[in-house]
Design a protein that fits this description.
Helix content is about 15%, strand content about 40%. It is an alpha/beta fold and about 120 residues long. The protein has one domain: 2,3-Dihydroxybiphenyl 1,2-Dioxygenase, domain 1 (Roll), CATH 3.10.180.10. The protein starts with a strand and ends with a strand.
């Protein structure tokens, strides 16, 4: 089994799509409006096998209710600098025995962590 798609509830699909593509650097894979009530947008972080889905009519989850989404990178400081340069309010890098992290949220408050692992087994 492979996890390949996670729904992220947003209040404004166009604003969220712009945030994820223009600021977070995700690839826009699909944007399909089935009807006025159903729109599916699939976005993928660079190098990831798992995508996110935003849209209308996809889920009863409240916008901003998803927390703890995590991206794993080789250099968290460099990624943080890139996010800051793109206008994302990423936290200072925090160091823990299990990795180093920066955190940010999308315009609705869905929370993301960016982790650099200390080592992989």
């Amino acid at each position: 089994m492979k996890l390949e798609l996670v729904q992220v509830p947003v209040s404004d699909v166009d604003r969220a799509k712009a945030f994820y593509t223009e600021q977070a650097g995700f690839n826009a894979d699909h944007d399909h409006a089935v009807s006025d009530e159903l729109r599916f947008v699939q976005l993928t972080p660079p190098g990831s096998a798992c995508s996110i889905a935003i849209g209308t009519g996809l889920s009863p989850m409240a916008p901003g209710s998803v927390q703890g989404l995590q991206l794993v990178v080789d250099d968290v400081a460099a990624v943080r600098d890139e996010l800051i340069a793109r206008g994302i309010d990423a936290t200072e890098v925090q160091h823990f025995p299990w990795g180093s992290f920066t955190f940010f949220s999308d315009p609705d408050g869905n929370g993301w962590a960016v982790q650099q692992l200390t080592h992989r087994d």
